[in-house]
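Write out the 3D structure for:
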Amino acid sequence: MATAIEQRLNDIYRRLGSVTPPESITQSVFETDQLHLERLAALGPGERASVWDLADYMDELLYRDIQTSLLVHVLPSCLRSWDEYLRNETFECPGFAEGFYTVLEKKDTFAGVLTEDQRQAVWEFMSGSILEEIDAQDGLRFEGYPAAPYRWIRALMTHGVIASDMERLWMDWWSVKTIGRAVAAVQYVSCLVYPKNANPVFAPHTREKGGGPPCLWEFDGYSNDCNWKAQNVEFLQKFFRDPKMVISVIQQAVDRLSQNSGFITAQRLLADSQLPSANLKGRGPAETLSERLLALPEILAEPLNTYLWPD
């Protein structure tokens, strides 16, 4: 029986129409010879591409006119290597993933090169990988770096830059219909409720080990001038408008985690997220949550700058 990733790769081959290699290579190269393109063009279905060849290919996609038939043929290999980068923290990926993200952002997921269905297929594959990594979450206490939540949160934030299907991905995640999605909801919302040095899920950053809570507006790739697509920002603004919506999701997560080791932490987050300030001069977790829910969509809507995060 095919694994989940093999099934999704078979689907992407079908939707892209990429089983047959291009008849010839017309793609111009960038600062290298054509050998990596020849190796990529010769790949058969299911064969793994060299991540070094894919990294070189990203330069052609970014700086040269794109041969559509070669792109369609190689895209499944790109997506497979990107999936490994997301799902496996030991996967060696010499600049490929950053280059792939940059190409997808700069080329607007190949608008005008791929058909709309092909572009949707790419987004759906990437959404599926992010959800699989979210489903794999099982921890609510992290100290130092690396840690799995950093990978899926950065992938989620970057997805809002390159794709237009954030609402579907977000709502699948916040259905909390699996243990992993409930755990991931607690991981994420903890960053909206607690100061960075008082988060029960992510221990404070140290010079020796790194760590600290993930940043909720950092994107992968080489671009510093990117931001979320407008429709994704509009969705998040509407969804975050009422803190009660977020609190209800955490309540569902608590229920889902009733037999899980993270239950106590999830309970604490639920209680703290509704805790107002104890005095008129201070600000309680409930006020912090409300302010951050308003601030985050505005941050994601603008190119990278230095943001004043309510803390």
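The radius of gyration is 21 Å.
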